[in-house]
């Protein structure tokens, strides 16, 4: 008979797992969850239902939740709280509510553990993890499986008819609804209407999508949107009218209506330490576009192109011009080549001085005297550089369309880090002209 891990024993084993394994295993979370999900559906006919069915979505959520919870305990071996443990009790109650035994669920736990163990051994071998460290991890993993088994059995024996089914199916429908709202091409209105009731979420006229960073451990138990509405692992709380899909590869939220100061503060408090990128508030039919902008904003913040907003909440609406410039990198590089190609092939020092002068002149549309004051150079030097730009570099600076496209290309180059401002002291005008001609 399988020995069931008691909570204290599991806590002790989790405490013994090396924290150094966390950065090795965290990137594996999405792939492991998907592999377990596929293996379970292949092995157990009752779980091999269409992907858009609530039972299949509940299975996917449960798998992702278990994988995330285990890695969360690796990073912080504090004892699991009641909400996390109730996830697995509810699975047992759900099986009883359907008049089914626990054999399939226990088989699913065994399959999941086997898949996770094989992946862990492979990752450990690639990274030279000592065998004794791997063995300690294995003890904790199998004890974790035994604990899930015990919790599900407890829930199965204490079934409250209808409660487990309604909670799991509501959560599954909420994820289906969120994904339908973000689909491209847009989901048909009748599909959205069919999901509203089971999801217990009335679709508003406008929504604000929120993008969260991928690869972070963010866990929500089933029933997150119920009255207590908590993310259990850190006693976080989200407003219950927020749709959430945080276990996938690209976690996100949908907030009804605009996100004002109060809601923004609530999101930051609900997800402390998690950078958030907010899309613009849009009609629900355009939610997918807004989410795309939110995710691009998130990526540009991570790349250092956009500065993060207050308290880690960055609004795409504050950076629309940058998002536009970054929307099609290949096209923008083509524009840069067409407008700046000859300038970029000029010798480095002269190129920097010409670029600096051109940027200032386009920005201010000022006289040589005004540009000279801004750059702290002689007006004659400015005039000479502008002549070079018009002749040697071939810029038609009298054409408004050319000026605009050049300004856009310069801004795009700056965002990509292609422009380097000169730090050299500026020579006297005559010396500068002689040096530039020699170049």
Characterization of this structure:
This protein is mainly α. The chain folds into three domains: 7-161, Globin-like (Orthogonal Bundle); 203-325, no CATH class; 329-438, Arc Repressor Mutant, subunit A. Helix content is 59%, strand content 6%. The protein is built from 18 helices and eight strands. It has helices at residues 7-16, 22-25, 29-43, 54-75, 82-97, 103-126, 131-157, 163-181, 189-199, 261-270, 287-302, 320-325, 329-344, 348-364, 368-375, 379-390, 400-415, 429-438, and strands at 206-211, 230-231, 236-237, 243-245, 252-256, 276-278, 282-283, 313-315. The strands form two sheets. Strands 1, 4, 5, 6, 7 and 8 form a six-stranded mixed beta sheet that branches. It has a two-stranded antiparallel sheet with strand order 2-3. Strand 4 (243-245) and strand 5 form a beta hairpin. Helix 5 crosses helix 8 (163-181). It is elongated and about 90 Å long. It starts with 6 loop residues before the first helix and ends with a helix. InterPro entries: CdaR-like_regulators, PucR-like_N, PucR_C-HTH_dom, PucR_C-HTH_sf. Residues 18-181 form the PucR-like N-terminal domain.
């Amino acid at each position: 008979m399988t020995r069931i891990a008691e909570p204290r024993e599991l806590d002790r084993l989790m405490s013994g797992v090396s924290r150094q394994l966390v950065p090795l295993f965290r990137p594996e979370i999405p792939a492991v969850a998907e592999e377990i999900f596929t293996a379970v559906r292949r092995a157990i006919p009752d779980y091999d239902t269409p992907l858009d069915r609530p039972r299949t979505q509940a299975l996917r959520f449960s798998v992702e939740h278990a994988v995330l919870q285990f890695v969360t305990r690796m990073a912080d071996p504090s004892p699991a709280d009641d909400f996390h443990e109730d996830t697995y009790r509810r699975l047992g109650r759900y099986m009883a509510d359907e008049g089914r035994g626990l054999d399939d669920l226990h088989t699913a736990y065994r399959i999941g553990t086997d898949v996770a163990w094989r992946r862990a051994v492979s990752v450990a071998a690639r990274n030279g993890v000592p065998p004794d460290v791997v063995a300690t991890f294995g003890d904790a993993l199998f004890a974790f499986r035994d604990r899930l088994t015990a919790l599900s059995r407890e829930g199965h024996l204490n079934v409250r008819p209808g409660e487990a089914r309604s909670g799991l199916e509501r959560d599954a429908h909420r994820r289906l609804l969120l994904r339908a709202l973000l689909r491209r091409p847009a989901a048909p209105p009748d599909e959205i209407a069919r999901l509203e009731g089971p999801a217990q979420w009335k679709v508003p006229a406008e929504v604000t999508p929120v993008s969260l960073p991928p690869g972070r451990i963010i866990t929500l138990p089933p029933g997150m949107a119920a009255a207590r509405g908590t993310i259990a692992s850190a006693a976080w709380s989200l407003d219950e009218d927020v749709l959430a899909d945080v276990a996938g590869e690209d976690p996100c939220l949908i907030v009804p209506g605009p996100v004002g100061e109060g809601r923004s503060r609530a999101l930051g408090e609900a997800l402390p330490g998690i950078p958030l990128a907010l899309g613009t508030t849009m009609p629900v039919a355009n939610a997918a576009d807004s989410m795309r902008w939110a995710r691009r904003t998130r990526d540009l913040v991570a790349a250092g192109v956009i500065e993060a907003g207050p308290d880690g909440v960055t609004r795409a609406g504050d950076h629309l011009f940058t998002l536009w410039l970054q929307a099609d990198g290949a096209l923008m590089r083509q524009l840069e080549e067409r407008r700046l190609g000859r300038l970029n092939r000029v010798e480095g020092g002269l190129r920097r001085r010409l670029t600096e002068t051109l940027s200032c002149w386009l920005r201010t549309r000022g006289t040589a005297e005004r540009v000279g004051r801004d750059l702290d150079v002689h007006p004659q030097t400015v005039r000479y550089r502008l002549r070079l730009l018009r002749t040697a570099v071939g810029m038609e600076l009298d054409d408004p369309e050319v000026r605009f496209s050049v300004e856009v290309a310069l801004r795009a180059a700056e965002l990509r880090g292609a422009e380097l401002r000169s730090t050299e002291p500026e020579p006297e005008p005559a010396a500068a002209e002689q040096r530039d001609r020699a170049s």
